[in-house]
Amino acid sequence: xxxxxxxxDDFAVTNLQALIQSGRRVMACVTPxxxxxxxxxxxxxxxxxxxxxxxxxxxxQPDSLEDGSFLRAIRGxxxxxxxxxxxxxxxxxSLLSVPRLFSVNVHASLLxxxxxxxxxxxxxxxxxxxxxxxVIKLSPCIDAGDILSQxxxxxxxxxxxxxxxxKLARLGAGLLNDTIQAVQSGQVQCVPQERKEATFAPKxxxxxxxxxxxxxxxxxHNLVRGLQPWPSAYTFYKGKLLKxxxxxxxxxxxxxxxxxxxxxxxxxxVQTGDQGLCVRKVHLAxxxxxxxxxxxRGHRLDLGMRF
Length: 307
Fold this sequence. Notes:
Layout: E1 2-7, H1 10-21, E2 25-30, E3 36-37, E4 42-43, H2 47-54, E5 59-60, H3 68-75, E6 81-85, H4 93-96, E7 102-107, E8 115-116, H5 119-125, E9 130-137, E10 147-154, H6 161-184, E11 200-201, H7 217-226, E12 233-237, E13 240-250, E14 260-264, E15 267-271, E16 276-284, E17 289-291, H8 292-299
Parallel strand pairs: 1-2, 1-6, 2-5, 6-7, 8-11
Antiparallel strand pairs: 3-4, 7-9, 9-10, 12-13, 13-16, 14-15, 15-16, 16-17
Helix pairs in contact: 1-6, 5-7
């Protein structure tokens, strides 16, 4: 089967590498234009482009997916299948109609739950105990296509959005290869999604990270885990933004939410709406990220101080 791959980030690369290693015929890769990065606005490659060039796969970076020369070039590959993962743009009908069979997408949730841009983050933020990956037949409606295959994964207590993303990328890569094999052998089944069961995972914003210490400790802990590596959960210390990078739910007292009620070897404990939350790693504005033990020592954090 001849495949054209659409993607951009490291999650997509894990899947692209799996296709290449399995011997699939990846005819071309389509990825966004190179972003300008840094103070000098130096250009950097999207991860998918770097991987494609390493394997001598033709790369296309159109500003518009409706561009005539781009469409002619893609049609020239006479592909059987498009694979679209974390590409960042909706494919127009002029592209969806190009492959001989159809287009597939790997989405990091158990669809129809968590359609949208940030399914991994929201699954953790909402305290889900299980998530997974779903391979769907791409449709004009975002993440709403028929389900071709699905695989589940438990969310561990120590998982952050970073670690869970890595696990789901590997799980998705294996599921994608299995699904393509099923498509090739004519054994794949298309199962429509239950629209009534759909939930959504919108884009993350910086405002989402502001901690309300009156919330339960587990809810704040989930926020800290779910907003890694960006935008991070945060509070304020003496007028400066303090990112909270690692926490643990512990026993607390009946103190005022947001108050430091303990200093321990692992860091410091803040009272929440119900229990204590041990802060283990922080990042103060204009400083480096550090373990909370060093923060306590350097800033002489006192009991009773309130965030």
